[in-house]
Design a protein that fits this description.
Length: 251
């Protein structure tokens, strides 16, 4: 019988530590499907973040390296410049990328580093117990905003794709979600496009994935998906913010 669905070869066959209903596992799978389809497992080097995906080197079958909190784009820059023939990607949460790592993220776009960033936006610090992230939505309750995020006190959220799309060295800035089958398919296409851009030496590609953290949101996995749809997508519209390969694709 023909096999129609299987674990990607580059996704290691081990139990994951992520909570039930967490999006990290889905996104790992999409990255690995792209790596398999492009046949680049032996030529790919990933950079792990600090956050819940800190141990993603246990799951990705390609070479992986660990970066200090927020420094993944800087580490990826060094890895790519010394290994220009390899595919290099970072995998980062919103605390890692948009708080302590803001400078690194902006400057890989400014420099047009030929790397891929997979950005997991779950509007919260997951690993450390649910503190406010730069992406926390106004009114959202977290451990450090128990009455809801008040922009007068805590400022407004950072919209990463919009910000990075303004940089000349950015080839692709696209926001996707993993709440429905249709959106998961689109997310995979965006990740594929990002890796193809690296092959063609087009510059920085960032794919922002609107993701769930049921544990720190205090919701069931099903209700977490509903929150993503009702609260996150309206605040963080899905779409292509920059795509140097299609002028029409730009917002
Ligand atoms: C320099 C430094 N500062 C702070 C921390 C503590 N810390 C570990 S993970 C984390 C936030 C992780 O949140 P996020 O990047 O959104 O990833 P998630 O866990 O939600 O996937 C923080 C603040 C650290 N490890 N190192
Ligand atoms: S704490 Fe949140 S982000 Fe971390 S594994 Fe659990 S659900 Fe996922």
């Amino acid at each position: 019988m023909p096999v129609v669905f299987k674990r990607p070869d580059s996704l290691l066959d081990v139990p994951m530590h992520y909570c039930p209903g967490c999006s990290h596992g889905i996104v790992h799978r999409l990255v690995c499907e792209v790596i398999d389809e492009m046949g680049i497992e032996g030529d790919t080097i990933g950079v792990c973040p600090v956050g819940c995906a800190v141990m993603s080197y246990d799951y990705f079958g390609c070479d992986m390296i660990e970066a200090p909190h927020g420094r993944a784009p800087a580490v990826a820059t060094g890895v790519k410049r010394t290994n220009p023939d390899k595919f290099v990607f970072t995998y980062q949460g919103d605390g890692d990328l948009a708080a302590i790592g803001t400078a690194e993220t902006v400057h890989v776009g400014a420099r047009g580093e030929n790397i891929v960033i997979i950005f997991i936006n779950n509007t919260i610090y997951g690993m450390t117990g649910g503190q406010m992230a730069p992406t926390t939505i106004p009114g959202q309750v977290t451990q450090t905003t128990p009455f809801g995020r008040d922009p007068e006190l805590a400022g407004y959220p950072v919209r990463v794709c919009e910000l990075i799309s303004t940089l000349t060295g950015t080839a692709l800035a696209q926001r996707v979600a993993v709440d429905t089958v249709k959106h998961i398919k689109e997310a995979k296409e965006a990740i594929r496009k990002a890796f193809e851009n690296q092959k063609e030496k087009r510059g920085l590609s960032i794919v922002e994935v609107l993701s769930t953290c049921p544990t720190n949101w205090g919701l069931s996995p099903v209700d977490a998906i509903k929150r993503l749809q009702k609260e996150m997508i309206p605040y963080y519209p899905l779409g292509v913010y920059k795509d140097v390969t299609t002028k029409e694709g730009e917002k």
